[in-house]
Amino acid sequence: xxxxxxxxxxxxxxxxxxxxxxxxxxxxxxxxxxxxxxxxxxxxxxxxxxxxxxxxxxxxxxxxxxxxxxxxxxxxxxxxxxxxxxxxxxxxxxxxxxxxxxxxxxxxxxxxxxxxxxxxxxxxxxxxxxxxxxxxxxxxxxxxxxxxxxxxxxxxxxxxxxxxxxxxxxxxxxxxxxxxxxxxxxxxxxxxxxxxxxxxxxxxxxxxxxxxxxxxxxxxxxxxxxxxxxxxxxxxxxxxxxxxxxxxxxxxxxxxxxxxxxxxxxxxxxxxxxxxxxxxxxxxxxxxxxxxxxxxxxxxxxxxxxxxxxxxxxxxxxxxxxxxxxxxxxxxxxxxxxxxxxxxxxxxxxxxxxxxxxxxxxxxxxxxxxxxxxxxxxxxxxxxxxxxxxxxxxxxxxxxxxxxxxxxxxxxxxxxxxxxxxxxxxxxxxxxxxxxxxxxxxxxxxxxxxxxxxxxxxxxxxxxxxxxxxxxxxxxxxxxxxxxxxxxxxxxxxxxxxxxxxxx
Length: 504
Hints:
Elements: H1 12-22, E1 27-31, E2 34-37, H2 38-54, E3 62-66, H3 71-83, E4 86-89, H4 96-106, E5 110-113, H5 118-122, E6 131-133, E7 157-163, E8 171-176, H6 177-191, E9 199-201, H7 208-219, E10 224-226, H8 232-239, E11 244-247, H9 254-262, E12 271-274, H10 283-293, E13 297-299, E14 314-316, E15 334-338, E16 351-356, E17 363-366, E18 369-371, E19 380-388, E20 394-399, E21 404-406, E22 409-411, H11 413-420, E23 426-436, E24 440-449, H12 456-466, E25 475-478, H13 494-501
Parallel strand pairs: 1-10, 3-4, 3-5, 4-7, 5-6, 9-10, 11-12, 24-25
Antiparallel strand pairs: 1-2, 7-8, 8-17, 13-14, 15-16, 16-19, 17-18, 19-20, 21-22, 23-24
Helix pairs in contact: 2-3, 6-7, 8-9, 9-10
């Protein structure tokens, strides 16, 4: 494999600096009453880079950050890009055992933690040699002593974003500077985003939904407004004073957003498009939200590993409540639908979606390095089945790797089943998805037990001891082992178990 010449390289720091030079006094990053211009943000990024360098961090080292959304989170991301460091973004929703796994997985040289999570980090046997408290005054070195940006390369890992694994433990997807740059380019090309389009980063910055689009907005010269979680009132207030490119909304928050819009007569400054994960949103909500915003709904399909590029080009018309939701392939990747042998299937035949393109992740972090096994074939298998129509549109069929998408979070049944099966009286545990008006989908457990004294409440308590709150089954049904439908090989057939949810 040939290496691109140095003259072909373009990293995130190059792109960000260009925006600083082009409009230094334009608003770049805001939270509450504080706004940083591009010039001021660049100065903050330099300070963080100097601080990290002074603490001994060097090219390729890992840092973990455990924090709520705040402007420093993005400042540190850009500082890591400047130094060629990898920033592993910890999901504060995870249970302590999962969090410990995520920290130990990347063997960080430094943990950055906010005051909100300081005690939670201290309670873990994390083994990180150095901890920096975000709420203590940072000990920034006086002045810039050296040029830190030259250590970075576009192929350097830049972010590690955790995604649920089929084995139940989170995996660390490594996002390179090249991938982040390509995702920003797709953001502009597929959706027409410009410097005039702001972005509200309210969803957790440990997810690609907020991080990808906050970085893309800055690389395009736009204004990023950081919010500490979802607040319909706060988002509405921003909409009345700022033009927003993509108003990121997902199952679980659309209903309160609709209520806030219905209750106000104040005109909005404009939204280019809204939403995400349309397949999991009640159709009447799609129609009402787009009508109130005067903006189409984005018919997205992507993942942490791919960004939103694979099949996210279609928009749902204002006021439309469509019966089907065909996707449009992005112009910034190549999609193949294949059978189990990896051979392309013709139009009209379901196949596994495989993707390649510059926005793909580099692999998963394992054993102190990036493991690119998932990309060895030259394609990434998303684990989702689609049918390509004659007109080229892509229709979602099912998940070839069974996955529950709940309010923007990925839940694999295996991780819940693993916990339930630790109970000494549990004989079988099967977790399936159930549609939910608020969250899109939620997990439901069917459990066979060997002793009648075991109750759903006992099993829910066990889950609370080991799992994040959003992963705890919303319903636990104690059933005889004999009622669980099985295939000829003895495997429980989850499709048939799902059908039992529809029975009265």
